[in-house]
Hints:
Blueprint: H1 4-40, E1 43-47, E2 53-58, E3 63-68, H2 77-107, H3 111-123
Antiparallel strand pairs: 1-2, 2-3
Helix pairs in contact: 1-2, 2-3
Amino acid sequence: MPDSAELLEQMRQKLEFFEQANRAAEARAAGYDAMGGELRDVEAAVQSPDRAVTVVAGLSGSIKDIRFTEDARKLSPSQLSQSVMSALQQAVAAAARQQAEIVQSHTGLPIAERVQKTQQEIFGRPADPPSRPPVDDDEDTGSIYRRDDRW
Length: 151
């Protein structure tokens, strides 16, 4: 049976172990708080290749804003739809890459490379605009509104 000095030393070592574990947990929690703050600030703005639409995407693919320029009035409904979808996809993809980079910088997990690879498999190179202009398959009235002036 250990004597009281040995018991006291064992208790001191256990206490030191728990204090170290607590400090490490607090440091991790602070790191996760910092990561959460950075993630809340994720924002990616992408303008369509025809410059008619700008989409701003945020955390988890949320759409924060969609802005149209005067150039949007020159597009047919089909062209405008393609411009919006192109800018949406690119903005959401850019925001996802930002998220992955933030998570990777805080955790060390190789997530950014995985996201990049997946996006390349799905969309081709993520920074590339569409290879051809949108096809105009609608009658162009010069307006972005339907003939009855409703969306």
